[in-house]
């Protein structure tokens, strides 16, 4: 029987296999350079395969796996309690891991009424207040949500914030903190970074004074117009309790009587959000008190009356500081302003923070939209104060763009900063 003839030439199948292998060897290294996510280790890594099977997705993409959004009992409304929120939020983040890159993800929440302002200058001021918040969020990498609709038919005026925050928690499971800022509050220190490490064991941060809460029992002992609240089950439950003292509650009228009898300096009989908050801190369950941080080491809420007349003096202190630290006068991109802010913060911390610009200046009682300000504020003091605060804050932004408002009372006047702006006669307006 004849033996088969052995040939050194590859068969057609062998030639095809060799060509395919060569193609892989040529193109695979190119792919690993052009696509940083494609690596041998990832292709042959069983963990990667497990991740794919779980349906994890990139930022901005939705997972095909079910989440709490698919559960009919999970609602945005304040009328229905959210159950097991910590687990639901945790499961969502596991499916969307690109959103869980930072412990202090922040969403600034604010808003105003849906109708036009009756004060002729009201809409203009609200626009500028919003611009101020957008500037601060851009500089610090925060998200922002502006709402101008009532999310509950009975929760209006100062109570409207609670349904908004509740809905924002559900809509933004990726954020760790929600930062409520009233429409009439202005960021007047654009450098300031919130000390979140101070609040690691707390879920709600309000500006106030413990002695005024527990000893004087005053309704102005804390402010409910600016606060930080953690996105967690405790906060969901707290909002339910807080809202239960508001106009959606059948006990609303009775709560007004209780609050007025408890807080002796409360001037009006109706239950309001601020009095209710102070009452919870003062008389509420330990589970609420223990998780609320009353902050007064910086101006989380700075009452405008004592601030607006000092802006030039405050700015001059920063000028003196910058004269001693020449590097802070260097022009730079806005994107790297955080490092310059950190250097200024070290200076501001000297003297227990007394040199620092007020973080937030809050125009409580000014009612910029209606113009019906507190009668105790004479003439145009509110309008003048808001103009000065907005320009003071805007100068901190504009300097990164090479301009300045030389007159804090005139927002329309803007002048360029010279290369060495110390020679331009605008030192006091920084």
TrEMBL record:
UniProt membrane topology term: Single-pass type II membrane protein
Glycoprotein in keyword set: yes
GO MF annotation terms: galactosyltransferase activity
This protein's GO CC annotations: endosome; Golgi membrane; trans-Golgi network
Principal place of residence: Golgi
Signal peptide as annotated in the record: none
Family to which the UniProt record says this protein belongs: Belongs to the glycosyltransferase 34 family.
PANTHER family: GLYCOSYLTRANSFERASE 6-LIKE (PTHR31311:SF15), XYLOGLUCAN 6-XYLOSYLTRANSFERASE 5-RELATED-RELATED (PTHR31311)
Name of the protein in its database record: Galactosyl transferase GMA12/MNN10 family protein
Protein's organism: Perilla frutescens var. hirtella
